[in-house]
Write a structure and sequence with these properties.
alpha/beta, 20% helix, 8 helices, QueA-like, nine-stranded mixed sheet, Thrombin, subunit H, six-stranded antiparallel beta barrel, 348 residues, 2 domains
């Protein structure tokens, strides 16, 4: 058995949530206590009772952009599908694209909006080694503004084959989303409501924000047999100096830092690689796998993750391998809802 085989598990297809609950905080919450080696079944709405006064929840305030693109090739009329990845200062975009037949530099694609109308034209300039394309959009304006007109919510393929419904535009976005830049939602944050935050504040559990723009690499399966050989994807992150200082004070005074999602965990642990938490801005390619020493996070709220993924490896590294294995087996048996629109676990 390879090292990677240990991170595989079998999930019945019907356990993959296809839509969220009508009330976000009604999602089930598996509470995992590492000290007592115990598992309890609660709900996300119970967080004010599960956490303590003086604790801090840390959320990722990135905003998902309408990154999924549909269009037709100007030369042939053939269907083209793409995903916006990033843009540069000169206004060029980097996109992934697929179409029947071979497409070449110099060709153009007419994007089709959600109403079926043709809109922005993309001219293909050059293909990168990773298969992505550098393209030039004819429209002027910020990328997220253009995408809001022509793009679609980039649902992962395990949700309705990636086909969005109109309501996904808000459902696949946290209530505190602020800075546009992600092509996938920080899904642990989807469970929070303004009412739940108010209850946490009343219980003297404070909220802090950081930013990590989630890229397509978050869904990329690990291909190498050895975890140490996996080339981890890089994502842009930001942690403000005053937030780092406040979280340090939380821990000094006996409170816990609760990372909401693996993205928040990666930013905090990236910013604390020297042993103490400090401001951070820039790309992080931190891959949390055994052995790993955690310096910044005391508890983790996270959804259930894909087999053989870097996210599952992170969770098992933090929660303890045997305990999280048991939790996942129990989640399947107890019919928890999995993945982006699914239920969550709180590892204490």
């Amino acid at each position: 058995m390879s090292q990677l085989d240990q991170y595989d598990y079998t999930l019945p297809k019907e356990r993959i949530a296809q839509q969220p609950l009508s009330c976000r905080s009604d999602a089930r919450l598996m509470v995992i206590d590492r000290k007592s080696d115990s598992i309890e079944h609660r709900y996300v709405r119970d967080l004010p009772q599960l956490l303590a006064a003086g604790d801090a929840v840390v959320v990722n305030d990135t905003r998902v952009v309408a990154a999924r693109l549909v269009g037709k090739r100007s030369a042939t009329g053939g269907r083209w599908e793409g995903l916006f990845l990033e843009s540069d200062a000169s206004g060029l975009w980097k996109v992934l694209g697929r179409t029947r037949g071979k497409i070449k530099a110099g060709e153009s694609v007419q994007l089709v909006d959600r109403e079926g109308r043709t809109d922005t034209t993309l001219t293909l300039i050059a293909q990168e080694e990773d298969g992505s394309w550098i393209v030039h959009p004819e429209s002027e304006g910020e990328p997220h503004e253009i995408l809001a007109q022509v793009g679609r919510t980039p649902l992962p393929p395990y949700i309705r084959g990636g086909e969005m419904l109109p309501e996904d535009e808000t459902r696949y976005q946290t209530v505190y989303a602020e800075h546009p830049g992600s092509v996938a939602a920080p899904t642990a944050g989807l469970h929070f409501t303004d009412a739940l935050f108010a209850q946490l504040a009343e219980a003297k559990i404070h909220r802090y924000q950081l930013t990590l723009h989630v890229g397509t690499g978050t869904f990329k399966p690990i291909a190498s047999d050895s975890l140490s050989e996996h080339p981890m994807h890089s994502e842009w992150a930001h942690l403000a100096a005053d937030t780092a200082a406040a979280l340090t004070r939380v821990r000094t005074s006996g409170g816990r830092v609760v990372a909401v999602g693996t993205t928040s965990m990666r930013v905090l642990e990236t910013a604390a690689r020297t042993g103490s938490l400090a401001a951070f801005e820039g790309p992080t390619d931190l891959f949390i796998h055994p052995p790993f020493t955690f310096h910044a996070v005391d508890a983790l709220l996270t959804n259930f993750h894909l087999p053989r993924s870097t996210l599952l490896v992170l969770v098992r590294t933090f929660g303890g391998d045997a305990l999280i294995r048991r939790a996942y087996a129990m989640a399947v048996e107890e019919e928890y809802r999995f993945y982006s629109y699914g239920d969550a676990m709180l590892i204490l």
